[in-house]
C-alpha cells in the first residue's frame, strides 16, 4: 500500500528497508496508493481527533506505541486577532501533547515503525524537544535511547525530560547542526535507529496536524497555516496532510503554508526571498528560540516546496518580536508557549503589518511547544516577583503599589 521514494531521483525503497535518505542524497517521502485507501467518513466526522484516528493514512501495521498524542485544541483567538488586526484567527496548541510538543505525533509513528523493523536502540540529535519526545516514547516501548544535545543551548525543561525518562544524554561541544552529522554517522555504523525528522516516518505522524485542523473546522480548510521553522520537517509534513485530504476528495483546497524563522537563524526564509530551493547553510545561528537555532535544516527543500507549492510565504522575526508574541499569547489568550512557538504569531503580525497577509484571511497559527519547556527564558523576560514580609500591611502595600 506504500513505499519510500526519493523526492529528487524517484528511486524507490520498500518499507522493510532501514533507510533515511536516497543513495543520491535526496530526501525520501512515503508514497501511498490512495485509490486503495478507504476512509470511513462517518467515523471521521464523529470520533474525537487523535493521531491514531487516521491510522488508515499512516504507514504502520502493528500495535501503536501510544500515550494519546494529537487531539490538541484549536482555539479561536478573538482578543489576539483584534490586537493584530485580522478577522478570524485560530491557534493550534501542539504544546498540549504528552511530552509538550508536536514531536510526539512523529515519535508515536516513528517508534512504532522502529519496533516493526526490529530495531533495538533509538537515537536523535536535538535542540531539545525531539530528545524529550524520543525519550518518552522509548521508555513506553522499552527501548534504550541515546540523545545528542548541543552543550549549553537546550532549555532546562527539555533536558529534565530526557534525563527522567532514562535516555543516555550526550552534551556535544558543538551546535545542533554538528550533532546531526554525528548522530547520522553513529546510526549508519551501529545499527541504531535514527529518529530525527530526516526519517520520513516521523513526518507521517506530524502530517496529522493538517488532518486535525480540517477536522476541527468541520472539514473546511483555512486560507493560511503559519508554522515555526527549524529543521523544516513540520512545514512539509502539515502540507502533506492537507494535500492528502484533497487527493482523497475530503476537501477541495490546501492552505498557503507560511514558514517563520528568526533573524539569527533563517536560511529557509533567505532562500524563499531569492525564489530558490537550495539554502545556504548558516555557520553560527543564534536566537533566544533555542528550539529553532538551526543553520542547516535537513528538510529545507521539502519545506520550500510546500511553501512554493501552496502559494505561501516565509518571513523572519526578531527575538523582540517573538517575545512580544509569546506575551500576547499568554496574556490575551491564556496560551503558554515556548519562544520558538511564538514565531508563528510574531510572523503573522509582521506579515499583516506589511500587507502580505490579507486581514480577511482565515489563519491558523501553530504553537509547537509548551511554555514550561523553557522556564529560564520566561524568568529573564518577565518582571520579578515582589518579596514582602508576612503581614497584611506589607501585602496590602504591595498589592496597591504601582
Ligand atoms: N518549534 C519547536 C518548539 C521545536 O522544538 C522545533 C524543532 C520547531 C518548532 C521546528 O520544527 O524542525 O520541523 O521545522 N525542534 C527540533 C528538536 C529541531 O530537536 O527538538 P521543524
TrEMBL record:
**ATP-binding as UniProt keyword:** no
For this protein, the record's SUPFAM superfamilies field holds:
Tryptophan synthase beta subunit-like PLP-dependent enzymes
**Enzyme Commission number(s):** 4.2.3.1
Q: Where is the signal peptide?
A: none
Which InterPro entries is this protein grouped with? Ser/Thr_Dehydratase, Ser/Thr_deHydtase_PyrdxlP-BS, Thr_synthase-like, Thr_Synthase_bac/arc, TrpB-like_PALP, TrpB-like_PALP_sf
Underlying gene: thrC
- Give every Tryptophan synthase beta chain-like PALP domain span: 66-369
This enzyme catalyses: O-phospho-L-homoserine + H2O = L-threonine + phosphate
What family does this belong to?
Belongs to the threonine synthase family.
Q: In which pathway does it act?
A: Amino-acid biosynthesis; L-threonine biosynthesis; L-threonine from L-aspartate: step 5/5
Q: Which coenzyme or cofactor does it need?
A: pyridoxal 5'-phosphate
Q: Which NCBIfam families match?
A: PRK08197.1 (NF006050), thrC (TIGR00260)
Per UniProt, the keywords (alphabetical) are: Amino-acid biosynthesis, Lyase, Pyridoxal phosphate, Threonine biosynthesis
Protein name, per record: Threonine synthase
* Transmembrane region(s): none
Q: What function does this protein fulfil?
A: Catalyzes the gamma-elimination of phosphate from L-phosphohomoserine and the beta-addition of water to produce L-threonine.
List the Gene3D superfamilies.
3.40.50.1100
Q: Mind listing the GO molecular function terms for this protein?
A: threonine synthase activity
PROSITE patterns found in the cross-reference section: DEHYDRATASE_SER_THR
Going by the record, the broad EC class of this enzyme is: lyase
Amino acid at each position: 500500500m506504500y513505499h519510500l521514494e526519493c523526492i529528487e531521483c524517484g528511486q524507490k525503497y520498500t518499507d522493510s528497508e532501514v533507510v533515511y535518505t536516497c543513495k543520491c542524497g535526496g530526501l525520501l517521502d512515503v508514497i501511498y496508493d490512495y485509490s486503495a485507501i478507504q476512509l470511513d467518513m462517518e467515523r471521521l466526522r464523529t470520533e474525537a481527533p487523535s493521531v491514531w484516528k487516521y491510522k488508515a493514512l499512516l504507514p504502520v501495521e502493528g500495535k501503536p506505541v501510544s500515550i494519546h498524542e494529537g487531539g490538541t485544541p484549536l482555539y479561536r483567538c478573538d482578543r489576539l486577532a483584534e490586537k493584530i488586526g485580522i478577522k478570524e484567527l485560530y491557534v493550534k496548541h501542539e504544546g498540549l501533547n504528552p511530552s509538550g510538543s508536536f514531536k510526539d505525533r512523529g515519535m508515536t509513528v516513528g517508534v512504532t515503525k522502529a519496533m516493526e523493523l526490529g530495531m533495538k536502540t533509538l537515537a536523535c540529535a536535538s535542540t531539545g524537544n525531539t530528545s524529550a519526545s524520543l525519550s518518552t516514547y522509548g521508555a513506553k516501548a522499552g527501548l534504550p535511547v541515546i540523545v545528542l544535545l548541543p552543550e549549553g543551548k537546550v532549555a532546562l525543561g527539555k533536558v529534565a525530560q530526557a534525563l527522567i525518562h532514562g535516555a543516555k544524554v550526550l552534551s556535544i561541544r558543538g551546535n545542533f547542526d554538528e550533532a546531526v552529522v554525528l548522530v547520522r554517522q553513529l546510526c549508519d555504523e551501529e545499527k541504531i535507529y535514527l529518529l530525527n525528522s530526516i526519517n520520513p516516518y516521523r513526518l507521517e505522524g506530524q502530517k496529522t496536524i493538517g488532518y486535525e485542523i480540517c477536522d476541527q473546522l468541520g472539514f473546511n480548510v483555512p486560507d493560511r497555516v503559519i508554522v515555526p521553522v527549524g529543521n523544516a520537517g513540520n512545514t512539509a509534513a502539515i502540507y502533506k496532510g492537507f494535500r492528502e485530504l484533497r487527493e482523497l476528495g475530503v476537501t477541495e483546497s490546501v492552505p498557503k503554508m507560511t514558514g517563520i524563522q528568526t533573524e539569527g537563524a533563517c536560511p529557509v526564509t533567505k532562500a524563499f526571498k531569492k525564489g530558490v530551493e537550495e539554502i545556504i547553510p548558516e555557520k553560527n545561528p543564534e536566537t533566544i528560540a533555542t528550539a529553532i537555532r538551526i543553520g542547516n535544516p535537513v528538510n529545507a527543500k521539502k519545506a520550500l516546496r510546500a511553501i512554493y507549492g501552496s502559494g505561501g510565504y516565509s518571513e523572519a522575526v526578531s527575538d523582540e518580536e517573538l517575545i512580544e508574541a509569546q506575551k500576547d499569547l499568554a496574556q490575551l489568550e491564556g496560551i503558554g508557549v515556548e519562544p520558538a512557538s511564538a514565531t508563528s504569531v510574531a510572523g503573522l503580525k509582521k506579515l499583516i503589518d506589511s500587507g502580505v497577509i490579507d486581514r480577511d484571511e482565515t489563519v491558523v497559527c501553530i504553537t509547537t511547544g509548551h511554555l514550561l519547556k523553557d522556564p529560564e527564558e520566561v524568568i529573564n523576560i518577565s518582571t520579578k516577583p515582589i518579596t514582602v514580609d508576612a503581614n497584611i500591611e506589607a501585602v496590602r502595600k504591595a498589592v496597591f503599589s504601582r
